Amino acid sequence: MRPLTEDETRLVLEKLAHFMGKNIKLLIERTDEEHCFRLHNDRVYYMPVRLMLAALTVSRDRLASAGVCVGKFTHSKKFRVQVTFLDYLANYAQCKVWVKGSSEMSFLYGNHVLKTGLSRITEGTGKNQAVMVLNERDVPLGFGVTARSALDCAVALPHDIVVLNQADIGSYLRDEAHHPAAAL
């Protein structure tokens, strides 16, 4: 486990800024306890400094993870946010989309959010904006990118796509069904 380089930090913070905007300061400059980002096996983890210091006593080959996985770097060195960081994204996200109960399962099966499944959307959300997807009880379900702005949603047809699904909490179960040996 090592600190991120300047380029890696820039990529991570740029990706998180798509969701959080200026709220990313609240994630970095916490008042309760100092937190940090660390890289281990191409995965970026977010953790309290005291946990990071404790994890340093474990050898690299024996350390599975520490803290919350923010995302991972691909082979082409792009950064992808993972669903494991969903709670933090939901707390600090600027733009949110709420889906109706009838469309909740559809989204969790990996489908996009249609206009018929849209309950409400944050005012001022633009097209191609990274958004958090929540159910009507404010439980985070995943995240995606808007296919239409909030204004366009008002005049959209019932079966038009409003949010493109990037990740959802059902993806873990779908991945386990395809790769059951990976769980061992």
Word description of this protein:
With 184 residues, this protein is of the alpha+beta class. The chain folds into 2 domains: 87 residues, Nuclear Transport Factor 2, Chain: A (Roll); 79 residues, PUA domain (Archaeosine Trna-guanine Transglycosylase, Chain: A, domain 4, Roll). Helices cover 30% and strands 29% of the residues. The protein has 7 helices and 11 strands. It has a 6-stranded mixed sheet with strand order 7-11-10-9-6-8. Strands 1-2-3-4-5 form a 5-stranded antiparallel sheet. Strand 4 and strand 5 form a beta hairpin. The protein is elongated. 28% of the residues are buried. The mean pLDDT is 88.
CATH fold group of the largest domain: Nuclear Transport Factor 2, Chain: A
Q: Let me know the number of strands.
A: 11
Number of domains as seen in the coordinates: 2
Task: Give the low-confidence spans.
Answer: none
Q: What class, by secondary structure content?
A: alpha+beta
| Second-tier CATH architecture of the largest domain | Roll
Order of helices and strands: EHHEEHEEHEHEEEEHEH
- CATH class identity of the largest domain: Alpha Beta
Fraction of helical residues: 25-40%
Strand order of the largest sheet: 7-11-10-9-6-8
Tally of helical segments: 7
Distance between the termini: 23 Å
Beta fraction: 25-35%
CA radius of gyration is: 18 Å
